[in-house]
Specification:
The chain is an alpha/beta fold. The protein contains 9 helices and 8 strands. The structure holds adenosine-5'-diphosphate (2 copies).
Length: 217
């Protein structure tokens, strides 16, 4: 299964991708996570991406395409993958299409998670991640309880992403409206789109997602 997750920042794409990719045994490829990893390691790609990410702007298309191309060409991607956060504009959608044609692969589904802006603002404002296991939590909707899954026996070491500041969040939403939202119609026209109500609880969204993809619970 080759899937793209589409929807506003904070709608819950990463949260749902973690469970589904594990169920389907396909890699969860988050371009945001790949970029943050490059940034942490201080690679040339990370340095190039830094200022864009901090401001909530899109990193240049060529930079992100390179990361995606490298990642979906690895052996563990041969049976499928779940792309989370890519493509984010029409240029990236065309680049992905070209790349898949070259690789003689096709996209099975684009899942669009629909949600109001008020709700994604609540979700982004309370988002926290663990420095050790990398899992995403929410101070109200998905609190970290129990020991960290990295196996230290301790609780998770939570932090707030620097691009989850109020200014960067508002900019990301603006960029989403302008650049990414047009992809909904683009993929609808290609009959690849399935729409899931992203405003429900994490469990309810997970059930709708599997139904929309024809997966038995
Ligand atoms: P969120 O979970 O809030 O949607 P992501 O983790 O997907 O955020 O992305 C974080 C940042 O990484 C984005 O604001 C952007 O700067 C950069 N980024 C991620 N994916 C892409 C992409 N496909 N094209 C350009 N920039 C990207
Ligand atoms: P995205 O990858 O689309 O940017 P995330 O998966 O990081 O979104 O989720 C954003 C925040 O919202 C996280 O704090 C997460 O725990 C929380 N969250 C995710 N899905 C839901 C949901 N259905 N209801 C409430 N909170 C959610």
């Amino acid at each position: 299964m080759r899937l793209v997750f589409l929807g506003p920042p904070g709608v819950g794409k990463g949260t749902q991708a973690a469970g589904l990719s594990s169920d389907l045994s396909i890699p969860h490829i988050s371009t945001g996570a790949l970029l943050r990893e490059a940034l942490d390691k201080g690679t040339p790609t990370g340095l190039e991406a830094k200022s864009f990410m901090e401001a909530g702007e899109l990193v240049p298309d060529t930079v992100v395409l390179r990361l995606v191309q490298e990642r979906i060409s690895r052996p563990d991607s041969s049976a499928g993958w779940l792309l989370d956060g890519y493509p984010r504009n029409l240029v990236q959608a065309a680049a992905l299409c070209e790349l898949l044609t070259e690789m003689q692969q096709s996209l099975d589904r684009v899942v669009y998670f629909e949600c109001s802006e008020a709700e994604v603002l609540r979700r982004l404002g309370g988002r926290r991640a663990c420095r050790n296991c990398g899992e995403t939590f929410h101070i109200e909707f998905a609190p970290a309880t129990g020991a960290c899954s990295a196996g230290s026996g301790e609780a998770c070491d939570l932090y707030q992403r620097s691009d989850d500041s109020e200014q960067a969040i508002l900019n990301r939403l603006e960029v989403y409206r302008r650049e990414t939202d047009p992809l909904v119609d683009h993929y609808r026209e290609q009959s690849a789109l399935v729409v899931v109500d992203g405003s429900a609880s994490i469990e309810a969204v997970s059930v709708s997602l599997r139904k929309a993809l024809g997966q038995t619970p």
